[in-house]
Amino acid sequence: MDKARAINTFLERVDRFSQIALITDKEMENIFGEEVTMVLTQMEHFMTENRTCSDCGGVCCRDIGCELYAAQFGRCPIYEYRPIACRMHFCHRLDDPYRPLIIELRDVFVGCHSAMDFSDNSNLRSLDSPPLGEVCPEFVAAVRSYTDLVRNGKLRPDHAAQTVCGEAERYRGHCTAKRPPFETSQ
Questions:
Q1: Which label site among 48, 73, 98, 117 has the fewest CB atoms less than 10 Å from its CB?
Q2: Contacts of 60 (CB under 8 A, 6+ apart)
Q3: Cα–Cα distance measured from residue 103 to residue 99, given in angstroms and rounded to the nearest whole number
Q4: Is 139:167 a contact under the CB 8 Å cutoff?
Q5: Angstrom distance (rounded) from CA 22 to CA 136
Q6: What residues contact residue 49 under an 8 Å CB cut-off, 6+ apart?
C-alpha cells in the first residue's frame, strides 16, 4: 500500500467534506483512495468470515468508550456510518496473516491523525472518535436514550438500531445542509 499517497489524499480532501464523524464506505474511498478501500474490504471480509468482531464481546468498543455500544445490538447500530477510527482499527486477533496490512493501516491513520497538530480543520477532530460526544454531541444526545433502553432490556435491539441509524442519517443530512458533501469523480 502506498501509505504516503493515502495520507496525502486524505489531507487534500478532508476539508471538502461537511463532516467525517459518521462516514459511508463510498466516502471512505473518496477521502482515502481506492487502495485503502480495497485493503479495508479484504480485511472486513476476513473478519466477517471468521466472526472476529461478532465473537469478541465488544472489547474494542468498550475500551474506546463508544456511547453506542450495547452487546444486545450484535453489531454497531450505525455500521453503515461508523467512524474512520472504527473502520481502521483491527483487533489483535487478526494478527496472522494480516499483520502487515494492519500495520500499514495504522500508519495511515496515525499519519492523518498527526495532521491535527498542524491544521485548524475541525473535521480532523473526528479522527479521535468514538467516543462521539465531542464531535457530534447532538447525535449522541438524540440516541443515548435508545441505547440505554437496549442495555436495560426495555427496547428491542432491532427497533433501536433502526432508530439510531435513522438519527445518524438525520445528523449527516443536517451537516450536509450546512455544507454540501464532497463528491469525487475519480
A1: 117
A2: 53, 89, 91
A3: 6
A4: yes
A5: 9
A6: none
What's the CA gap between 4 and 32, in Å, rounded?
11
Q: Which of 26, 29, 40 is nearest to 101 (CA)?
A: 40
The one-letter amino acid at 156:
R
70: Cβ contacts below 8 Å, ≥ 6 apart: 77, 147, 150, 151, 157
Per-residue pLDDT of the chain (186 residues; tens, 9 = 90+): 899 999 999 999 998 888 999 999 999 999 999 999 998 888 888 777 877 776 777 777 777 788 999 989 988 899 999 999 888 877 766 667 777 888 888 899 989 888 877 777 777 888 878 889 889 999 999 999 999 999 999 999 999 999 999 999 999 998 887 665 544 444
Helix and strand numbers (H, E) in the chain are: 8, 0
What is the maximal distance between C-alpha atoms in the chain? Answer: 48
Whole-Å CA distances, 109 to 53, 56, 127, 131, 149:
20, 23, 8, 17, 34
Helical axes 3-13 vs 25-32, angle rounded to 10°: 110
Q: Which residues, 6+ apart, have CB-to-CB distance to 164 below 8 Å?
A: 68, 77, 78, 143, 146, 147
DSSP of 75-129, one letter per residue? S-TTGGG--HHHHT---GGGHHHHHHHHHHHHHHHHHHHGGGGG---GGGGGGG-
